[in-house]
Design goal:
Elements: E1 5-10, H1 20-36, E2 41-44, H2 58-67, E3 73-80, H3 86-99, E4 104-109, H4 116-121, H5 129-144, E5 165-169, H6 173-181, E6 185-187, H7 196-206, E7 218-226, H8 230-236, H9 238-248, H10 268-277, E8 281-284, H11 286-300, E9 304-308, H12 314-333
Parallel strand pairs: 1-2, 1-9, 2-3, 3-4, 4-5, 5-6, 6-7, 7-8, 7-9
GO molecular function: oxidoreductase activity, acting on paired donors, with incorporation or reduction of molecular oxygen
Family: To bacterial alkanal monooxygenase alpha and beta chains.
GO cellular component, one term: cytosol
């Protein structure tokens, strides 16, 4: 098993009876905690029109987190690029990199991060997304290059800065693109596990080395709920289960506290759908998390595990990341 990093994916989850301000303070607290545990990076994901997720202005929130930390890399997991002008994103991340040199990542996705009606409000054109997304990535690379200094349109700040780009995917399409462009690849196994194994194989088999990345680099995002006991972890995970039930029912209300019995909430069909979507969710005490990480890495051997954790109680969420850090170290040292 190769050495691998661990990182954090945060959606700025809004909890029942909590404010958006509380949410952002919890995200900063988590980033500081992750930094103290030597997590590799802290990424925030762009979503829109959801009461349960507050990371819509992703670039602004990245600045807040980076300003409140010292060394951990901070970035987007991801910016949904067709929602934006390439130039504006180059300027925003050029500004962030200028403020926090050597600490900013730019993960890029093509999905809207929202529903169809909101996607229209964002100005997306679904008919051209598959052509637009690769073109926009090339535009970003041009805006960040020193050579663009002679162009009529320039990204200032941004020009000449080394801002790593990552391609995000939840299907196989972006695996081909990341391989063709020779860029690192991050897969959303935390909500779209069905094509993850195929996507990794496609990426590795088709990877073309580039000046950005000489060999394949894979980040796998998974859900993680760890606690001192297995029983506590499984109860805490019901917040995550309820969140996915809300997605199925198109109910975007804030995250709910854990419950004793999920069968009072979901139907058998909903349960089957949720558990299928959450196939790569690591739940348990430290020993169980160690076994789940080991099993996952024996199968996929990724460069980095990025952990998304929907745990209602903030202190228990922090402790979950502590347990994951210990479990990761135990796996590598065992």
């Amino acid at each position: 098993m190769q050495n691998f990093e661990i990182s954090v994916l945060d959606l700025a989850p809004v909890k029942k009876d909590k404010t958006i301000h509380d949410t952002f303070q919890d995200s900063l607290s988590l980033a500081n905690h992750a930094e103290s545990l030597d997590y590799k990076r802290f990424w925030l994901a762009e979503h829109h029109n959801m009461e349960s997720i507050a990371s819509s202005a992703t670039s602004v929130l990245i600045g807040f987190i980076a300003n409140g930390t010292k060394k951990i890399r901070v970035g987007s997991g991801g910016i949904m690029l067709p929602n934006h002008s390439s130039l504006v994103i180059a300027e925003q991340f050029g500004t962030l990199e200028s403020l926090f040199p050597g600490r900013i990542d730019l993960g890029l996705g093509r999905a809207p991060g929202t529903d169809g009606l909101t996607a229209q409000a964002l100005g997306r054109n679904p008919a051209i997304i598959n052509q637009q997304f690769p073109r926009q990535i090339l535009e970003l690379q041009k805006y960040f290059s020193k050579e663009n200094s002679e162009a009529l349109v320039r990204a200032i700040p941004g020009e000449g800065l080394d801002i790593p780009l990552y391609i995000l995917g939840s299907s196989t399409d972006s695996a081909f693109l990341a391989a063709e462009l020779g860029l690192p690849y991050a897969f959303a196994g935390h909500f779209a596990p069905e094509q993850m194994e195929m996507a990794f194989n496609i990426y590795r088999q088709n990877f073309e080395p580039s000046k950005y990345c000489t060999e394949p680099y894979i980040i796998a995002c998974i859900n993680g709920v760890a606690a001192e006991t297995s029983e506590e972890a499984h109860k805490m995970s019901t917040t995550l289960f309820q969140a996915f039930i809300n997605i199925i029912r198109n109910d975007r209300k804030p995250f709910a506290p854990p419950v004793d019995e999920m069968d009072d909430i979901w139907s058998p069909m909903e349960k089957s759908m949720v558990l299928q979507k959450l196939r790569y969710t690591f739940i348990g005490d430290q020993a169980e998390i160690e076994e789940q990480i080991k099993s996952f890495q024996e199968k996929f051997n990724v460069n980095e595990l990025m952990i998304n954790s929907h745990i209602y109680d903030h202190q228990k969420r922090l402790n979950s990341y502590t347990i994951f850090r210990k479990a990761k170290d135990a796996v590598l040292n065992g």
